[in-house]
Structures are given as C-alpha cells and as structure tokens.
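Give me the fold.
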Amino acid sequence: MSEHFATNLKLACSHYRSISEVCRQLSMNRAQFNKYLSGQSHPTSYNLKRIGDFFGVEDYELGLPPEQFARLIGARTTAEAQRSQSDPFAELFQPLHEHCGNLSRYCGYYFEYANSMSVPGMILLSLVHVREERGRYLFERQERQERSSSANVQSEDWIRCRYLGAAFQLQDRLFMVDYESLTVNEISQTILIPSFKSRITRLNGLKIGVSSGDRRTPACTRVVWEFLGVEINRINAYRQVKLYHLDDPRIDDDVRERLSVGPISNGLLEIE
C-alpha cells in the first residue's frame, strides 16, 4: 500500500475534472487529500474504505502495482461510462450531482412533523435518516399510522411506509426527492430552508405529495425537521413514529406554530 497508493490515487482522480471535485464529493479536506496524493501520509482504515467505495474499487486494489491498477480501473470506468450513457435518468440528473453542495453537516437522524395528508387535523411524525454514500447524499423516511383507534393496536393494524430518496443543496435551499419503496406508488418532494447556525436544531419547509386514501389527492403541507443526532436509539425513536392529535402534549407549541403559520389553511393545501 505504501509503495503504490499515491500513484494509483492520482490515476483514479484523473478520471474526474479536478481534485477539488473529488474532495467535494468525498467530503474530505483538500489539504489532507493532497498529502495522500504526494505520499506524505496515508488514510485511516475508515477513509481508505470511503476512497475505495467512491472509486468503485476494493481497499487492497488501491495498493496494486500501477500497471495492474490502471487496467482494473480503466475497465471499470469504461463500464461505468457505458452504463451512464445508456441511462437517460443518469444523464438527466448528472448536473444536479455536479452542482450539489456539501450536505455533510445535515447527515444524521430527524423527526419530521407534518400535517397528515391522509387524516386531516392530525400531525404525522416520521423518522428520517440522511447519510452520505460515495459522494452522494441519500435519505430514508419511515412512516406508520394505525388502522384502528383501539388502544391495543396489533402489528397487523399498522400501515407502514418506507420512502427512499436523494438530497441536494442547490444555492440556499435543500431539496429532498423520494419515492415510497414498498408500494412504488408515490413520489414526494420536500424543500427545506437550511440552518445558518453552528448547531442544527429544527428546519422548516414544505412537502408535496398525495394522500394515501382512495382519492390520492395531491396535497402540500408544512413540515418541521427536528435534528436528533448522528447516532440514536432507533427502536425508541421508531416507537414515536405515528399520528398525533393537534392538542397532544407530546407535540410542543413551537412545532404546532411552525406547522400552522402562513397562507396554507390549517397547514394543508389540497389541489383538486
């Protein structure tokens, strides 16, 4: 690794427009990355895996003899390019990836509070996880609501939804686009106002989607994202994911106010 790593890293970076682009997509410090390129230092095991994942190679392959590594990455880069060129979706969204800002400070878990699109007058609390993967920012949103109002709700009485999506920071807004992965019957978009404070607490925004009822009415609601941390007790957090009445004491006044202020009546706008 010590003998060939820097040479192979330079070759891998040559497939990108600049070192700055690589560092930005990896969310790595440029000065430290330059030390890797010059051979002055070597990455930790964690950073080595990140670099390998980003370039689509195994950790040990970064230490192969340069000639062997060149053939390896050349073949994989060609295959990647061919797949990208044959996929119109990849071509369509490539400019978004190139202009997307660094969302590393937003990675972690959130509670999302929203006016329910399916049960008007209720607040839906969801669990969101934003993460970085190979220079891209992805997120998962878990929702559930009980079919019955009975206090003894069994597991089969819950409706569960799992949304998977991508996050982009374009100029001064965060754009979150996702789809419901269990039924694949809905795409939603959330736009958040980023935090300009040193510590993220709550983010305000709007979400557009459809209700889960028979009419599948398009609707728009205010949302509040509450930052929970990078590592949390997911079981305890997921137990709180459900519908709440507007006057439920577990929903604080600040959240209620953020969901109700402004021109959207009752926090929810239905589009007929």
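The longest strand covers residues 158-170.
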